[in-house]
UniProtKB/TrEMBL annotation:
<dbReference type="InterPro" id="IPR000866">
    <property type="entry name" value="AhpC/TSA"/>
</dbReference>
<keyword id="KW-0676">Redox-active center</keyword>
<feature type="region of interest" description="Disordered">
    <location>
        <begin position="1"/>
        <end position="23"/>
    </location>
</feature>
<dbReference type="InterPro" id="IPR013766">
    <property type="entry name" value="Thioredoxin_domain"/>
</dbReference>
<dbReference type="Pfam" id="PF00578">
    <property type="entry name" value="AhpC-TSA"/>
</dbReference>
<keyword id="KW-0049">Antioxidant</keyword>
<dbReference type="GO" id="GO:0034599">
    <property type="term" value="P:cellular response to oxidative stress"/>
</dbReference>
<dbReference type="GO" id="GO:0005737">
    <property type="term" value="C:cytoplasm"/>
</dbReference>
<dbReference type="GO" id="GO:0045454">
    <property type="term" value="P:cell redox homeostasis"/>
</dbReference>
<feature type="domain" description="Thioredoxin">
    <location>
        <begin position="3"/>
        <end position="147"/>
    </location>
</feature>
<dbReference type="InterPro" id="IPR050924">
    <property type="entry name" value="Peroxiredoxin_BCP/PrxQ"/>
</dbReference>
<keyword id="KW-0575">Peroxidase</keyword>
<keyword id="KW-1015">Disulfide bond</keyword>
<dbReference type="GO" id="GO:0008379">
    <property type="term" value="F:thioredoxin peroxidase activity"/>
</dbReference>
<dbReference type="InterPro" id="IPR036249">
    <property type="entry name" value="Thioredoxin-like_sf"/>
</dbReference>
<protein>
    <recommendedName>
        <fullName>thioredoxin-dependent peroxiredoxin</fullName>
        <ecNumber>1.11.1.24</ecNumber>
    </recommendedName>
</protein>
<keyword id="KW-0560">Oxidoreductase</keyword>
């Protein structure tokens, strides 16, 4: 059972693909997506699509982070191979997954996405289809007023 909409977001710290500790307090709009494994077909599709939408996320003031139980070296290789421009957080002990009540008992995190802001969980997506998910989350965040694009 994952954290529900309206729940307080836990503050988490984990190393990114460069081995730098990243602390997330979720005051600003943030997408935190959990995925099973680096360089697997579904996870690669999902990462590529978040990366493809990243400029629009950033224009809307939304940060994006991926989390899996893979280690820093695996994340670095995955980011390098795919040219990803956002942080992947390494959670080999499952501590970040546990903080969000995401099942990682198999050694891999269940595919779950959270949209967070103002220190709270705003939206939760469970058992997602990786293909099209990045655009779906962005569309929902814009429609729900959690993010806004600047006028052009």
């Amino acid at each position: 059972m994952t954290l529900d909409e309206g729940s307080d977001a836990p503050t988490v710290t984990a190393p990114n693909q460069n081995g730098e500790d990243v602390t997330l307090e979720f005051e600003e709009p943030t997408v935190l997506y959990f995925y099973p494994r680096d360089e697997t077909p579904g996870c690669t599709i999902e990462a590529r699509q978040f990366d493809r939408e990243l400029e629009t996320y950033r224009e809307a003031g939304v940060s994006v982070y991926g989390v899996s139980t893979d280690d820093v070296d695996s994340h670095r290789a995955f980011c390098d191979a795919e040219g990803l421009a956002f942080d992947l957080l390494a959670d080999p002990d499952g501590e970040v997954a546990e903080a969000f009540d995401v099942d990682a008992s198999s050694g891999a995190a269940e595919r779950t996405t959270f949209v967070l802001t103002d220190g709270n969980v705003q939206s939760v997506y469970e058992s997602v289809d990786p293909d099209g998910h990045a655009r779906e989350v962005l569309r929902d965040a814009l429609e729900d007023g959690l993010a806004t694009l600047p006028e052009r």
